[in-house]
Amino acid sequence: MKFLLAQINPVVGDLEGNAKKILYIASKASSISADFVLTPELSLWGYPANDLLFKKNLINNQYKILDQLALDINKKYGNLSISIGIAEIINDSFFPNLYNSIALVEGGEWKIIARKIILPTYEVFDEKRYFRSEEKVSVLIKQIKNKTWRLGFTICEDLWVNKDIEGRGIHRKNPIIDLKKKKVDILVNLSASPYTLKKLELRSKVSSFAAQYLQVPLIYVNQIGANDNLIFDGNSFILDKNGSKIKQLKSFSEDLSSWDIEQTKPQKNKFEKSEMSSIFDALVLGVRDYAQKCGFKTALIGLSGGIDSALVSAIATAALGSNNIYCVSMPSKWSSSHSKSDAKDLARRLKINFNSIPIENLMSSFEESFIKTISFEMAEITNQNIQSRIRGTLLMALANQEKHLLLSTGNKSELAVGYCTLYGDMNGGLSVIGDLYKTNVFKLCNWLDSEDSINHRKSYMLDTNVDIIGENIRTKAPSAELGPDQLDTDSLPPYSILDNILKGIIEEKKDLQQLEEDGYKKDLILKIISLIKKAEFKRKQAPPILKLSSQSLGSDWRVPIAISY
Length: 565
Prior knowledge:
By secondary structure, the protein is α/β, with parallel strands linked by helices. The chain has helices spanning 15-31, 56-77, 163-166, 175-180, 199-214, 275-293, 307-320, 337-350, 360-374, 380-402, 412-417, 438-448, 454-459, 471-475, 495-506, 512-517, 522-534, 536-539; strands spanning 2-7, 36-38, 81-89, 98-106, 109-115, 138-144, 147-155, 186-191, 218-222, 224-227, 230-233, 237-239, 245-248, 255-260, 299-302, 325-329, 353-356, 405-408, 430-431. The protein contains 18 helices and 19 strands. The longest helix has 23 residues, at 380-402. The radius of gyration is 26 Å and the shape is elongated.
């Protein structure tokens, strides 16, 4: 039996476009005489479809498109079998009234062959809002070339059942144990599993456990592409019955790869990546897909001369091309000469469009207006926020005028403690590094300017003869430059300390006592906790944040604003 693994990038809700993509894949499968094409979870819809699944017209249209797709595949490519992820309607009076299902298209018709059993409701997942859980495991009996095969089908979370590997037990059902009784020949998992740090390692472990437990090969097909804040990395693979990897597909890129069940020798190209290169690839894909799927060709960035905006500019350039990136420096009277020159030099190295719009006169106009009309003399914090909001207004005006996608440049550390200005530097359609702590911003920039990134820079057509970020930007002390000689450490602890405490609170869910046991002072911990609480109203109004960690401050962060604990 010959499989074609189709690691595709669907557009959420574009049923017709996704169907055309699957039809194209069918042509590729036919050209290599594949027997069975496997596409990811909800491949006809794109994942996550969220509340689009409540639209009855889309659900009904899905069936018409699937009917036509089955006819087209049969007419053009004959006896070819393709698995397609769909939302299957349940005709009863209960809610939710959908299954997350797999349809098998063959012979000009289609039928349901599998339904998702375990529905995740944690982090960004909320599948119980839309889907009903299936009770029984799914086995497809397939006759290929005079041989009968028993294929066990699972959908994404159905594979995540080993609490010793995952570190938590959240499911009572265990489809893998149930499949043991069915004596399957091959285990298939069709997924839409988003990228987070260490996710690939975890996927490999849970998959290896399942293959070894069932003593059969495992085929894992994952979606790629970015949909809003979620980034899907692909990284599909095949394991032998001992849980060893024999095939690895590309990361962060569409990929088609065939596999014959007789092939048991590991392939040579494993597409291994470092953590920093994976983060960079993920963010580039996140920006590129968000822009393209939302209809933007160009992006706008406020370039301060600091490390955050420098990194976002580099990511955006890699994603959209240097000709499509527009940067604006907006110096005030407090802006240092090195920040002005660093911003200009960075734009030159990246070969992106650059302009400078001084804001000193605008700032003076605000001050004069307040004093003359209401005898209002701005306090220091008000003055700082007005500067940020002037810059935010200018950027939004330019974005509106030129139809640019405005990219927000704030990092996770700042967003966590509220070291950012609502309607100012938080303005934008997408937060690129909002799930990257400041210390990791420095790490990523250091990697980008190192020899280890040369091949990456070549692949994105970034200059390999010069440092991209530059030593000046990488080594200077972080500063918002909203006041004379201001440094971030004037009001925050060093980021090496702050980020560790933040990670303990946000990702690791540590309490005060646990953080004290880690060696941090009680007063400092309480201060940071207070800052996190006070900044919640800002995060609720932030643009979508590209998710990199197990706990971002975006859609998977559901803390109330008005709280006391």
